[in-house]
Design a protein that fits this description.
423 residues; mainly beta; Pectate Lyase C-like; 14-stranded parallel sheet; ten-stranded parallel sheet; 5 helices; 10% helix; globular
Amino acid sequence: MKKNISISLLSVFITLSSQAANAAYFKDFSTQVTKNLVTDYGVDNYDNKDDSPLLQKAIDKLSKHGGGEIIIPKGVYYFTNIQLKSNIKILIDPQASIRPYINNIAKNGLKSIFSLGLKSAPVENVVITSSDKDKRFTVQLPTIREKTGKSPKKPFNNVYGVRVFQLVNVKNFKISNMNVFDSKTKFSAITMGPIVRGKYKGAQPADGEVSNISAFNSAYGYGAIQVQAGDNISFENIISEGGATLRLETGYSVMNDLQIGSVSNIKADNISCIDGSAALTLSPHSMQENKNIDAQNIKSNDCNFAVRIAAGYISTKQKNKSLTPGVFTNVKIHDVDATFGFRSQILHKDFTLLPKDLQRYIYRTDTELEALRGPSIAAVGYVAGPGEKQNYDVSVTGIKAHGFNTKAITTSNDRYKLYTKEH
């Protein structure tokens, strides 16, 4: 019965229709020129060669002349490190499959398939969506085994990762109608962060809409979306199978040392997690300006939590000795719905939040992912470390918990004896 529930949930989430853009976040813009990547730029959409140069050529040319629309028809495409430019719309056929060009991972330092304002002047007015508003295009991420050599004692951290979208210095953007079929790769499918050096220091994503996104087979700690920094952004109809669906975590050590960037003015609606960590995660590290988070319809099925609220703290990686624990202010979370299960992704540090009678159900899967499978913990978790207190307030209302024998909200005061044996 449990598996039928999961399949049913997946079907519902995949078929969610696109929602109209919220004018308070993303504002649509018009384009005068439309080009087809295959017929106008000669891309072979059925070979296995790198299509990045031709797509980049199309983007650069159209943006230079005021912008335009690029149609990517059905077929298979290989892209890496595509730099989106201002006033560009990319419309991808639902029968198109977007994939990273693997040969570029070690050779050119692959970080993402698409990036927006990563190291450039501000990028404004960008849309990436399906050419059919009621369907989704597909991104497929293969297993990546190339090694970075940076973390020999942590196998998973020692593997190159790939993001589908990396957003930095961009304003007025929309990403929607996408299914990501992952292979437990490192990094969230969509990441957002600040520029911490140079001329555009302090810039971060602003005024955007991300909607109708599903990520499947995600690794623990990653998942669909991570926001290190961003302002005035709407997230709607987002699901992750594995990992964290929407992770508002300002964990980049450089931004913490310099106190650059924040997560502010965020709206989230219909955020769901299956067999993972949490649907919504808050973790401020040592950043002080995170504020105004309004989230509703937060759902989990077989995850640690529906909502995971981490206390602010100062990482041992930080060089700035004057830092204080970070906070979120004015956080309102409404309508939380959590269903208990035995396949959540759980780390050792969360074992002590499980009652003793559930600790025996933890079992090892792939140790390279640094997470085990285990029972769901609670609908809402305040996960300050041992002996630490939650240092900011969150308003959580309308909690529904199904199948749990524990209370709906767990805190650091509920920690039990550390689970030490591994099966």
